[in-house]
Amino acid sequence: MKYTKATNYALHIVAYMIKYDKRDNLSLLPLANHLNTSPSYLSKILTQLVKANIIKSTPGVNGGYVLQKSKEEISLLDVIKATEGSIPMFTCEMKENHACKIQKAMEEAENMMETYLKNKKLFEII
């Protein structure tokens, strides 16, 4: 299993925002410079985090991004789902899909991992 590069950046963006706990808006260019990535790529990731209600954006000259949720609420799973979505990691392609014991075992494993990621708050790691 492998997460996308977007998830890597999303986790680091939110961690940065939590670590520095700024009340001011964080603008795109300084954040892109800090993460050493292009502003256009970062903008797409920030949009996903906004849609997931993890951060909010403010337009305008003094605009930028701030946390929408409190840092104590944001789990690893919240950020991962913002970029990866909620599609199961494994889907049985055999005809016995509903009765597939492999599918059931994989679902159980994924549920255990999701429970761990849901309970692990990003601020605890930083």
Automatic annotation (TrEMBL):
SUPFAM superfamilies: Winged helix' DNA-binding domain
GO molecular function ontology, one term from the record: DNA-binding transcription factor activity
Any one GO cellular component localisation term in the record: cytosol
PANTHER family the record matches: RRF2 FAMILY PROTEIN (PTHR33221:SF9), WINGED HELIX-TURN-HELIX TRANSCRIPTIONAL REGULATOR, RRF2 FAMILY (PTHR33221)
This protein's name: Transcriptional regulator, BadM/Rrf2 family
